[in-house]
């Protein structure tokens, strides 16, 4: 779906960014919590899902805090950001876990981007993250899972 949601969502709503950049939305219609019924989730495809997107062709599966790492990307010259996105943990319309963490771009080549992870767990708790590269037009790649460790 592109555009407006078809169903209003109430108190137990959820919106979770998926690896492909789409968003799954679910939850009770307003005023129906506890009624025992259910409604279908919806999937929203933002504008960038219909554009040419950067591609991550290679990246490490594990990186350590403060480490430099290399991302293989055929359109490396167009990359403006490297970001980590922690998975969601949502209840009652509140996401307690998902966070956006930028990584410094430290260099690169014609088909590679070099980036550096955050220095420690105060910036990003250890665990699994989706790695995205984002071009200058704010179009993200499809995410790739990466494990951030001390």
Describe, in plain words, how this protein is organized in 3D:
The protein has 150 residues and is an all-beta fold. It folds into two domains: 14-48, no CATH class; 53-149, Sandwich (Immunoglobulin-like). Helix content is 0%, strand content 39%. The protein is built from no helices and twelve strands. It has strands spanning 14-17, 23-26, 42-44, 62-64, 68-72, 79-85, 90-91, 94-95, 100-108, 112-116, 127-135, 144-149. The chain has a seven-stranded mixed β-sheet with strand order 4-12-11-6-9-10-5, with no helix packed on it. The chain has a three-stranded antiparallel β-sheet with strand order 1-2-3, with no helix packed on it. Strand 11 (127-135) and strand 12 (144-149) form a beta hairpin. The termini are far apart. The mean pLDDT is 89.
Q: Tell me the number of strands.
A: 12
CATH H-tier superfamily of the largest domain: Immunoglobulins
Count of discrete domains: 2
Strand order of the largest sheet: 4-12-11-6-9-10-5
**Rg result:** 18 Å
| Rounded average pLDDT | 89
Count of discrete alpha- or pi-helical segments spanning 4 or more residues: 0
Task: Write down the secondary-structure element order.
Answer: EEEEEEEEEEEE
Main sheet specs: 7 strands, mixed
Please state roughly what percent of the residues sit in beta strands, choosing from under 5%, 5-15%, 15-25%, 25-35%, 35-45% or over 45%.
35-45%
Helix proportion? under 10%
Outline type: flat
Q: In whole angstroms, how far apart are the ends? A: 39 Å
CATH topology of the largest domain: Immunoglobulin-like
Spans of at least 5 consecutive residues whose pLDDT stays below 50 are none
Overall SS class: mainly beta
Question: In the CATH classification, which architecture of the largest domain applies?
Answer: Sandwich
By CATH reckoning, the class of the largest domain would read Mainly Beta
């Amino acid at each position: 779906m592109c555009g407006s949601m078809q169903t209003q969502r109430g108190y137990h709503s959820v919106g979770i960014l998926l690896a492909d950049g789409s968003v799954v939305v679910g939850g009770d219609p307003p005023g129906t919590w506890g009624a025992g019924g259910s409604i279908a989730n919806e999937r929203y495809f933002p504008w960038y899902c219909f554009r040419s997107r950067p591609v991550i062709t290679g990246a490490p599966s594990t990186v350590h805090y403060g480490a430099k790492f290399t991302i293989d990307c055929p359109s490396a010259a167009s990359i403006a950001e490297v970001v980590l996105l922690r998975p969601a943990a949502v209840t009652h319309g509140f996401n307690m876990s998902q966070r956006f963490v930028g990584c410094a771009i430290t260099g690169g080549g014609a088909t590679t981007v070099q980036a550096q992870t955050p220095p420690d767990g105060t910036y990003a708790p250890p665990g699994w993250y989706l790695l995205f590269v984002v071009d200058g037009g704010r179009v993200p790649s499809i995410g790739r899972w990466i494990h951030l460790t001390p």
